[in-house]
Amino acid sequence: MLERLAAAAKDELRMIGLAGGAFLMGSTDRFAYPEDGEGPVRRERVGPFAIAPTTVTVAEFAAFVLDTGYRTDAEKLGDSLVFRGLLPERLRDGAPVVAQTPWWRQVEGACWHRPEGPGSSAESRSGHPVTHVSQRDATAYAEWVGARLPSEAEWEFASRGGLEQQPFPWGAVREPDGVPRMNTFSGDFPDGPTGPVGTVPAASFEPNAYGLHNTTGNVWEWTSGVFGRTDGRPVLRGGSYMCHASYCRRYRTSARTAVTADTTLGHTGFRLALDAG
């Protein structure tokens, strides 16, 4: 399986060079989460850097594993967190429920190449974002290709695509002309979807003005930033296919959350960055 997946990987590292500059970071609009540290709005400056147009795909991660023999944190631990809406009934009802977030199941055997656990396979999703990777896994991949994770400021600068204080990478309206621009949960969360649930290919939807795809929705993305002065957990940005207005409007350019560096989830991936030059 690894060989077949890796064969679909691109040989060339694709990056978009950005000149950097000053921008207004954060948000205090009515949909912002003050407890997440989205505000206050402040002027930040980033230097020149390059960033990937898409998140790292299953195929690309397979090439890394094939070359290095790397084992992810989920594989070493033996389980990972999976959205219950993706699971067959036997696993949905049998796997441990995560306290306070009962839509998550702790599934034995779930990992990057078995995203829903035993009996599942990522082989048909070679172009989708790799998931069930911790920040440590993402950093190991980045080092293998000679890159790094973006800083939180770099990530937001790139996601905004040159727009100031707009909630989405394309502007102020979530669905211009009623057409979805990102992959989020539609219907009644968590058990009443009106559309497909799960990841879509990493290059889905139109890119923003800088050429980046899916910086909101699809999968949360690891950064190198930390959540707060007294909270050293790494920051995730961008929201995911599980975001829904009824409980989580974190599908916006300023939204942020944090988990521990060894956490693995079925809605979390990463994209790469490089220093300029």
TrEMBL record:
Residues 14-273 form the Sulfatase-modifying factor enzyme-like domain. InterPro entries: CTDL_fold, Sulfatase_Mod_Factor_Kinase, SUMF_dom, SUMF_sf. This is Serine/threonine protein phosphatase. Transmembrane segments: none annotated. It holds the Pfam family FGE-sulfatase. One of its GO terms (molecular function) is formylglycine-generating oxidase activity. It comes from Nocardiopsis sinuspersici.
